[in-house]
Amino acid sequence: MSRAGRRATLLVVLLALLAGCSSAAAPAPVEPVRPVPAGTTVVTGPPAAGRDTSCGDPRVSLTPTPPPAPGAMPPGSTMAAIVARGALIVGVDQSTVPLSYRDPRTGELTGLDVDVAREMARAILGDPQRVRFRIESSAQRIPNLLDGSVDLVVQAMTITCDRKRQVGLSAPYYEAAQRLVVPRTSPVTGIADLGGRPVCAPLGTTSIATLQNSRGADGRPPVVVGVPENSDCLVLLQQGQVDAATTDDAILTGFALEDPRLEVRGAALDAEPYGIAVAPGATDLLRFVNGSLDRLRADGTLARIATSTVGSPAAVPAVAAYAG
Hints:
The protein has two domains: about 80-175 and about 275-315, D-Maltodextrin-Binding Protein, domain 2 (3-Layer(aba) Sandwich), CATH 3.40.190.10; about 175-270, 3-Layer(aba) Sandwich (D-Maltodextrin-Binding Protein, domain 2). Strands 1-11-10-12-9-13 form a six-stranded mixed beta sheet, sandwiched between helices. Strands 6-2-7-14-8 form a five-stranded mixed beta sheet. A three-stranded antiparallel beta sheet has the order 3-4-5. The protein has helices spanning about 5-20, 80-85, 110-125, 140-145, 160-165, 205-210, 230-240, 250-260, 285-300, 300-310, and strands at about 40-45, 90, 95, 100, 110, 130-135, 150-155, 170, 175-185, 200, 225, 245-250, 260-275, 275-280. It is an alpha/beta fold. The longest helix is centred in the N-terminal third of the chain and has 19 residues, at about 5-20. It has ten helices and 14 strands.
C-alpha cells in the first residue's frame, strides 16, 4: 500500500472511532437535491419533538355551560364585555380557500372558519354580522390572543397539548388531516419520495414539526421550506420552486380548486382537529363556545356549513368530549 493509501485508511478509521465516541453528535445537514427558493425560511436544526400527548387526548375540552340568550350574558363575564363593546373580534386568515378567504366577486370574507365565527357572534350578540375580523398569519394567532387583540381565533387551529398550555381551546368543530399536494404530472406519491427535496409548509403550524420528523425512502428528511401564509406555498408550487406542499387536507383541497394542475396525494401524515382558541384566562368564554358548538352540532348547522364550504360534512365530529 502506498503512503497516500495508508493515510486514507487511517483517516477512515479515525472518523469511525470519533463517530462511535459521540453518539450525541449533531446529524449531518441534509444536502438538498435541488436549490431551495430564494427569500424563504429553510427550517433547520434538530427535528422538533413528536406530537405532545402530556395532556392526554387534546380534543378533551372544558365542560360547556348552557348558553344564555344572545345579548343576555352573565354580568361581569367575558361575553358581557363583548356585548358591551358591540362586536366580537375574531382572528382569521384571508387567503385560505375554502376556510377563510375573500370572495373575488364581493371582496367579503367567506369560508368554513368565517361562517363558524359568525355563528359565535350570533350566539353572543344575536347577530352574525356583529363581528370584526382581524387578519393574521398562523404564527400570529397565539400572540394576538395573549395581548388581547382578539376575543377568539377561528383559523384552522389544530388542537395540541402544547397550544393548550398557552391558550384555551374548544372541542373540535372540524377534523382535518395533514397530507401532501403536488403537480398532477409529478411522480411523487407520498412522503417517501421527498427525501432531500424542498417541501413547503406554513410557519407556526404543526405541519412543520410533522415534516421535520418524516423521512424519505432514502432515509433523509425533506428540506422544510417555511413561509408566512398558506397561499405562499401555492405560489411556490405553481412556480416549480418546491416539489410539494403540506398542510391540512381542507386547505390543500382549496389549492387544487384554485389550480386544477395540482392534486392531493398520499396517506394522512397526522390528524389535525380544529378548535376555537380563547385567551388563557377566559374559561367562561371557552365553556360558552363549547356549549354553542354543541348546539350547532345537534341542529345540523356545523354539517351544513362544512357542506357548503369544504364539501366534507363527515369531517364534523358527531360528539365532543369534556372534563373539568
